[in-house]
Amino acid sequence: MISQALKEVRYHPGRVVATIVAIAISIGFLSTISIFLRTQGTAEGKRQAIYSTRADSVVTVTKAIEKPDKVTKAIEDTDGVKDVEPLYSSSGMASHNGSDVMGTSYSTPSEGFRWSKLTEGKWPEKPNQVVASKDGAKKLDLKVGDTFKFNDQDATLVGIADEPKALLNETFYVDGPGESDDGDDSTWLVHVKPGSDATAVNKAIVKNVAGVQKFDTNDPVTAQTAKQFQDASIKDLIGSFDVTKYGLMIFGAIALLVGVIIISTTFGILLAQRRRQIGLMRAVGASGGYVRRMVLGEAIVLGVLGSLFGIVLGIVLSLIGAARTGALWFGLSWPVGELVGEFLIGVLITVLAAFLPAIRATRVAPLEALRPVPTVEERRKASIARIIVCSLLFLIGVGLSVLTFHVENQASIPVAIGSAIFLSIAVLAAAPLYVPSLIKLFGLVIRPFGPTARLSTSNAVRNPSRTSLTAVALMLAVGLSMTLQIGTATMRSTGDRMIEEHFPVDMQVSMKPADVDESGPDGEHESGVRVSSGADQGTDSAGKAPVLPQNALRTIDDLPNVTTQLHLESTLADLGDKDKASYESSTVVYGTEKDKMSQISDVVSEKLDDNVILVNENSQFKKGEKIKVKGSKGTVELSVAKVPGVLDFGEALTTRSTLDRLSADQQVSAVWMKMQDRTNMTSVMERLTPLMSTPGIGISGGFPTAGILDKILDVILMIITALLGVAVLIALVGVANTLGLSVLERRRESALLRAMGMQKRSLRLMLLHEALQTSFVGVFVGVVAGGYFAWLGISSIFRAAGTNVQVQFGVDWPWAIGLVLICMAAAALASILPGSHAARTAPTEALAEE
Predict the structure, then answer these.
(1) How far from the centroid of its chain's Cα atoms is residue 708's Cα?
(2) DSSP for 384-436?
(3) Domain extents for the chain?
(4) With contact defined as beta carbons under 8 Å apart, do 781 and 476 qualify?
(5) CATH topology of domain 504-701
(6) What is the reported pTM?
(7) Exposed/middle/buried for residue 692 (C-beta within 10 Å: 0-12, 13-18, 19+)
(8) 333 CB neighbour count, 10 Å cutoff
(9) HSE value, Cβ hemisphere, 13 Å, CA-based, for 146
(10) 470-503 per-position pLDDT tens digit
């Protein structure tokens, strides 16, 4: 059985190469995840514990220590301890020339405990001197002697250390002890005297340290050998990376599912081509079991070959990835158990994918198998059964979609998932029913290109099952990609709308009056503002409106990424009646024109009117209530309107003409801005950071929130696109495979066309049209289904969250169009090799009897 399968692979490699490629890509994806994440987790664990490499033991305390010097003395006095040194570390940020990196800084260890070596310069000797890792210095474009910002302080780079490349935090060294993240010193490095038992010494250390300060059982003192400490660190980091691994395995499962479809399709086509051969074998005495074992033997051989190539591919990709992240500095880690499991999965899915075609082939009677094609009656019965089953599944899916919006909020997500499952199965299983019709419809578009195009349409629909299975693989891959892409874009547009409603103004810089408490109980601005405290806040004793300092205005004028600025003048006024609880005195009332405000925020400008005053959304005044507003010039009666995320307590907004009726003495107290690119917030916040230390200045707005949301969603979309790209690639391999096998199947037919006068170019063009039609149908159905599932999923998520926000359907058009064009271009490329093969074969050779 296996020898027969090996002969088939050896003598007809063109028939099985696509199956091997599909398996290799699927298993390569899984093995890359396993090897790379294990390598990365091990490397990060070793890097985080790297400071223990020159120590014999590591002592840690997980509770604040009142007197760290006494802990050091207690360890030092322990029998068997040769030397001890506290390790001081803290997290912070270093910046230089517009670049910044997060880092972990350590006090420079003494020579005996020093785990790193200098490649350039010297170790720190003064408080403002710093040594950076090689990669950190490169990211910041620093050379020895350069000055840069380190934790908001000026520092000088005096040396560069040979450190492993970090995935996240870079390493820095400073002179002398510092403060740890929690303000306490919790790690000590220990050298044990030669001949001493490290385990016994560690137990004695724990006992002595526990006597220095009373510790709870939940905050123990631990003393471990350096090896134990490193192993624990590696284990913790691997556990953290395993969470990521399991999430990525979902995309691996998707790739496997697409691979199963391609493999099943391939075996179906191969067995259809060998229908007469199988019939002859059965006629001369071969049993159905023998034929099944022969086919499954071929599947095992292909599964083994594909899985082996996949493991090799995973190793190569992991090497590239680990070299890129710096994890290769510690060497590759080998999750042998996982790799063996993935190898077996590759073999198993190949056998399972081939099982159904093998059963179908051997159920046919010998004489029936000798017929070139199934009878019309057989095809009709299969179609009726498919119509009934798929219609039932489709109706259940539609019913669940409707039910999604009528069940309790928390139940909407499970119901939506059930709807997506039933609809997906119905759409994919019913493909042979509608794919030929869609291909014929698309064929009307290319019909004007001549008889070659018309012939390609006829060829594409001649075998509905084969063509449909190829399109199904593409439907699945593209549909999933579009679901997640449109879902991400919809979440972004809906999130942007929510941000616009809750924070209508992108950026606000304002001066707060000294006698108005606009902050919450923790001194935090209601809409995310950072308010500096202090008495000197630009307001004089006469009670004038606060004034933005000139240096602040100059800084704001020089801000990048700003499309429109609006300077708001203000005055102080009293709102309401003194004898009522809602009375607000010394309120800062801003004024501006409606048309100018529309350039900043439509949400605010829509509510702005001469007879309206906008107040904080949580103000005690009721919406629509008529209140008196008293200024230094006079009193006016205005109707209350509320807008979220713009005004704090003690602030109000009206039109410029109404402000003029309240006071003639007006000052520029705030600047509101419209940003050009919400994702580009780093350069803006860097310029505004110095203003945060100015007493009384508040900075708020939706710009940072929207920027963070956009960045997160962009990263998610990029990762998802890359991961699902594997599934799309496998599907495109299936398109190429189907074309290649169809060329082999229609070898005599192609030769007859050549003999009747068809040129080589026309033959290649016919196959190109056929590939484009099949791919277009798969992409079209995938895009439509993906759009619907994305809308259904996002709607159910927002419904489950209990928000009444209206979902803003969004599509990242450049990405979506790019995906379609890539698929069509790949399909066109897939037709080149089969077309060339068909055109090269001489008509007389192809027409000859085998």
Answers:
(1) 13
(2) HHHHHHHHHHHHHHHHHHHHHTTS-GGGHHHHHHHHHHHHHHHHHHTHHHHHH
(3) 1-53+228-372, 54-227, 436-503+705-850, 504-701
(4) no
(5) Barwin-like endoglucanases (2.40.40)
(6) 0.63
(7) middle
(8) 21
(9) 17
(10) 788 778 778 877 887 888 788 777 777 777 777 7
